[in-house]
Each structure stands twice: as structure tokens, then as C-alpha cells.
Design brief:
It is built from 11 helices and 19 strands. Strands 2-1-9-8-7 form a 5-stranded antiparallel sheet, sandwiched between helices. A 3-stranded mixed sheet has the order 14-13-17, with no helix packed on it. The protein has a 3-stranded antiparallel sheet with strand order 16-18-19, with no helix packed on it. Helix 2 (58-69) runs parallel beside helix 5 (117-128), helix 4 (104-112) packs antiparallel against helix 5 and helix 5 packs across helix 6 (131-144). The chain has 3 domains: 26-275, DD-peptidase/beta-lactamase superfamily (Beta-lactamase), CATH 3.40.710.10; 280-357, D-Ala-D-Ala carboxypeptidase, C-terminal domain (Peptidoglycan synthesis regulatory factor (PBP3), Domain 2); 366-399. It has helices at 2-20, 58-69, 81-85, 104-112, 117-128, 131-144, 167-178, 181-187, 257-272, 366-372, 375-399; strands at residues 31-36, 41-46, 76-78, 101-103, 191-193, 199-201, 218-224, 228-237, 240-249, 251-252, 255-256, 273-279, 284-291, 297-301, 306-311, 319-325, 329-330, 338-346, 349-357. The chain is 34% helix and 27% strand. The termini are far apart. The longest helix is centred in the last third of the chain and has 25 residues, at 375-399.
Length: 400
């Protein structure tokens, strides 16, 4: 009997934890990472540090490396036969041909949007003289970013021993690249026409009939046998920008789960994460007693909204308000003077603060003064009477 009661108690204590937990949807993708760029916070991860092939997500690194090392992106490049010979037959192509004259900027778009290995290899060779030299720059960038699970051997992402990364490292690289305006513009473009007239479009456009990709602002797809189907994406969800990396997904029943997983995660975030008003302007924060004045108390109220982006199941007890300052007021305190500070904490981290300024005149109450210090007038009267009596006595003594 005692064991049964104990079991019931344990279940009662445990069930709320299950109910309140915000469970992310299951994914077909084996490695996943979701990162909030606004708060610089990891939201969710699944085997995100595991080394794996990342296919054409490699071209993210290729592109930001090119942008940082090519001085003039509008410089003309002639596509040579030697450049085209380096492109594997199994790699995706943008449609460039020997003799085409394009700019480095064109090659960036042709590398990122249709994932053209012909553009990627041509850009690497034209800018450094060889693919190996360009790869060295890519690895230098990985070292600069202190990536622990990344090493590159080629510029396109084709499977080869020693070429690998991880969901977390790819997120770090993409986050870094998005700080570059040129890269971000390319990453968030769906269609582009090269200076030679060749039209290219993002590979994500292939899936518009399969899933709703409208909430994906920018993306880079990838596929190899070893990497499976991959996708890096940027989305704006309730005013916050998110990077979502999914790796090693499958195609099942005609569905590409790199896209399906990403869209499901975006919809989940949209439903369950938003700006929460932890404090609203004019909310009562603290009441201070007021002495010897016409008012008995002074209400300290928030002068602004305190907002934080949180999941729907956030723990309200994790939000704390701390007031430091005067513990009581009186008519001696003047309007417009600072009387304290309010600090707002979430999970013991300071998220906002404000000064407390006295916003009204506190007038003296003579009634309260008399009531509190009634003995003072009596003492004064006694002293005055004593002095008068003493003076009379002195006069009488002189007359004698």
C-alpha cells in the first residue's frame, strides 16, 4: 500500500514536467540546429556536433571566402576549358560554357542559387590560380572561426575523404557570412540574370509545389550520397531571425525531408515562440511609504514595456524584478529627482533596467506634523512660561 501511494506521488510530480515541456517536432533529418540570431541563442539541436558530409552547403564557405578575398566583384572572368574540365559529371551545374564572359559577382550567384559547380570551380581558379589554393583559404577561415568539426578538400562539397563539417559549424559559418551585406543579398535572392544573359534560380524554387517555402527568406540546399539531403535556411519568425540547419535527410514518398523538416520547424517556431510582455508600461512595480505628507504611499510604475522573445511554455518564475533605492519618502523628496533603479532579470540574466524618477510633488501635511510632533509645542509653551515666571521673580527680587 505504501509503495502504491509513493508511486502515485511520483507520477503526480512527474506529469506536469511532461505536459509543460515544449516538444519540438520529430525530424527525418539526422542532424539539426536552430539558432536565434537576435538573442544569439541556441534554441534546439540534434547531433549538431557530429562530423558529416555537408554537400553543397560547402558553397556557403566558398562564397564568403571569395567575397572576402576578391577586391573587385565586378571584374570580368572568361570561362576556360581548363576550368570546365575540373567539374565532376555528377555535380550540379549553372549552365556556363567555355568562352562565357561573366563577373565574379555572377559566379557567386551561379554558385549559390542553382548550386552550380561550374561557377564555383571557375571562381576558385580565376581568383587564386587553383582549387587547392582556394581551399586553403577556406580552411583558414574555418580556423579563424575556431570550428572544431570542419575541414575542406574541395569547393563544391562532393564526397571525398577529409571533407566534412557539422550542423553547428555550418551555423557558425552561415551566421558569420550573413554579416556581410553582399553575401546576405545573394543568399536571400531567388532569381538572378547573369551579365551574359544566363538566368539562374534558387534550388528551393523546385519545391514550391511540395511545401510552402514562403517563410524561408534565404537558403542553400545540398545533396550527395553521403550527406543525404541538406538545407541551411534563414527565416524571420515573429520579428526574430532564425538559422535552421538540417543535414542527412531522406526523400520518402516523393517528399524531400530537408525542406519538409525545415518548414515544419519554422511553423512550430511561429506557433510557439513570440515576444512576451513580461512587464507592461504603467504596471505597478513597488509601493513606498510616504511620511508626514498628504499622501501615504507612492506607487513606482514601469515607464516602458519589458519584452523578451520566449517559448509559450516559459516559466514565469524565471522572471525577477529588483528595486534598489529609497525605502520611504517624505515631503523632503523633490519631483524630478532619482530615487532608485529597477532591474529586470530572466533566468538570472539582466535583460533591462530603468531609473526611478519621482514624478510628482510630495506636499507636507501640517496635520500629520502636529500629530507626530505634538509634544514640541507643549515643550515650547512650558519653556516660555518658565522664562516668564523666572523673569517676574527676578523683578520682584530687584524691588526688594
Amino acid at each position: 500500500m505504501n509503495k502504491k501511494i509513493l508511486l502515485i506521488i511520483v507520477l503526480i510530480l512527474f506529469i506536469p514536467c511532461i505536459v509543460n515541456a515544449l516538444d519540438f517536432p520529430n525530424t527525418n533529418s539526422k542532424m539539426v540546429e536552430i539558432y536565434d540570431l537576435n538573442d544569439n541563442k541556441l534554441i534546439y539541436e540534434k547531433k549538431s556536433n557530429k562530423q558529416t558530409s555537408v554537400a553543397s552547403l560547402t558553397k556557403i564557405v566558398t562564397s564568403i571566402t571569395a567575397i572576402e578575398n576578391i577586391k573587385d566583384l565586378d571584374k570580368k572572368v572568361t570561362i576556360t576549358n581548363d576550368m570546365m574540365k575540373t567539374v565532376s559529371w555528377e555535380a550540379s551545374k549553372a549552365g556556363l560554357k567555355t568562352g562565357d564572359v561573366v563577373t565574379y559577382r555572377d559566379l557567386l550567384y551561379a554558385s549559390m542559387l542553382p548550386s552550380g559547380a561550374d561557377a564555383t570551380n571557375s571562381m576558385a581558379i580565376a581568383s587564386t590560380g587553383s582549387i587547392d589554393k582556394f581551399v586553403s583559404k577556406m580552411n583558414a577561415l574555418a580556423k579563424k572561426l575556431k570550428l572544431k568539426n570542419t575541414h575542406f578538400v574541395n569547393v563544391t562539397g562532393l564526397d571525398i575523404k577529409g571533407h566534412y563539417s557539422s550542423a553547428d559549424d555550418m551555423r557558425i559559418i552561415l551566421e558569420y557570412a550573413l554579416n556581410n551585406e553582399t553575401f546576405k543579398k545573394i543568399y536571400t535572392t531567388r532569381n538572378y540574370t547573369l551579365s551574359n544573359g544566363l538566368k539562374v534560380k534558387s534550388t528551393v524554387s523546385k519545391y514550391v509545389n511540395e511545401v510552402n517555402t514562403s517563410k524561408i527568406l534565404g537558403a542553400k540546399t545540398g545533396f550527395t550520397d553521403a550527406a543525404g539531403y541538406c538545407l541551411s535556411s534563414l527565416s524571420n519568425i515573429n520579428s526574430h531571425e532564425f538559422i535552421i540547419i538540417v543535414l542527412n535527410a531522406k526523400v520518402e514518398n516523393g517528399k524531400h525531408y530537408n525542406l519538409v523538416d525545415t518548414v515544419n520547424l519554422i511553423n512550430f517556431l511561429n506557433k510557439n515562440f513570440k515576444n512576451e510582455y513580461l512587464v507592461k508600461k504603467n504596471d505597478l512595480i513597488k509601493t513606498l511609504p510616504v511620511k508626514l505628507s498628504k499622501i501615504d504611499k507612492y506607487e513606482i510604475r514601469a515607464t516602458k514595456d519589458v519584452i523578451k522573445y520566449l517559448p509559450s511554455d516559459y516559466n514565469k518564475d524565471d522572471f525577477k524584478i529588483k528595486y534598489t533605492g529609497l525605502k520611504e519618502l517624505s515631503f523632503k523628496n523633490k519631483k524630478g529627482k532619482e530615487i532608485g533603479t529597477i532591474k529586470y532579470y530572466y533566468e538570472n540574466k539582466l535583460i533591462d533596467k530603468e531609473k526611478v524618477i519621482l514624478n510628482k510633488d510630495i506636499k507636507v501635511s501640517f496635520k500629520k506634523l502636529l500629530k507626530k510632533y505634538f509634544y514640541i509645542p507643549l515643550i515650547l509653551i512650558v519653556i516660555i512660561l518658565f522664562l516668564i515666571t523666572r523673569k517676574k521673580k527676578r523683578k520682584n527680587i530687584k524691588k526688594r
